[in-house]
Amino acid sequence: MNKKLFILFICFLIVPIALAEDWHRVHNNKSDLKTYVDIDSLYNKSKDTIEYKIKYEDLNKNSTKILYAESNCKKNLAAIKNSKKDNLELKTFTKESAISFIHSYTCSIEEQNKSIDWTSYMKDLEARIKSNWFPPKSDSTKTVVITFIIGRNGSLISQKITQSSGIPMADKAASDAIKYSSPFKPLPSQYTKQSIPIEFKFDYNVVYGKN
Fold it and tell me: Is residue 178 exposed (0-12), middle (13-18) or buried (19+ Cβ within 10 Å)?
């Protein structure tokens, strides 16, 4: 039986995953307005568009608003919306506007995260999981896909089976492989978020005449 592991994707996901908030202050040129970006809310809505949560604190009105923003760093466009479900056209903005500072800060963070070389980290992660993966014997090919979240210190925050093999023992073997491989190595120091979602595909094929 041949065992194969595939890392399907890491960190720059199309599908958002709810994580703990991590607000970073973004300085602007308005003395009566404080602005923040939730770094852990960043995700790629499309190839070039990032969606994320922002917070406005109006010191004059003593009020706070939680909103959503989208940025296209390549085209230098952005939009602010009241809900994630809102579908607004991204537009240009003045350099003095609050969204200008937020957009610039967010794009710099995204670029920094994308520039990290994850090769060594992923090789270690894959080796750990494979050494703890003991799938049950079977007469057919089985596939399990699990999404799990690693904290900055390498701790396993959560895991979820996103594609079941249809066999409880096979699903449990994949889940246990992740569970018993933790804690993992701490995330790279250059990585700005507090956690990272990773999706693994566990695939094992039966080859007759071999162990």
Answer: buried
Cα 193-38-192 angle, rounded to 5 deg: 20
Identify which of 125, 142, 134 has the alpha carbon closest to the alpha carbon of residue 197. 125
Rounded CA-CA distance 159/177 in Å is 11
Tell me the CATH class for 2-13+117-205: alpha beta
- Cα–Cα distance, 10 to 116 (Å, whole number): 12
Listed by start position, the domains of the chain span 2-13+117-205, 23-114
pLDDT tens per residue, range 53-84: 999 999 999 999 999 999 999 999 999 999 88
- Residue 125's DSSP bridge partners are none
What DSSP string describes 156-174? EEEEEEEE--S-HHHHHHH
This prediction has a pTM of 0.70
Q: Residues near 3 by Cβ (< 8 Å), separated by ≥ 6?
A: 130, 133, 135, 202, 203, 204
- Radius of gyration in angstroms for the set of CA atoms belonging to the chain, rounded to a whole number: 21
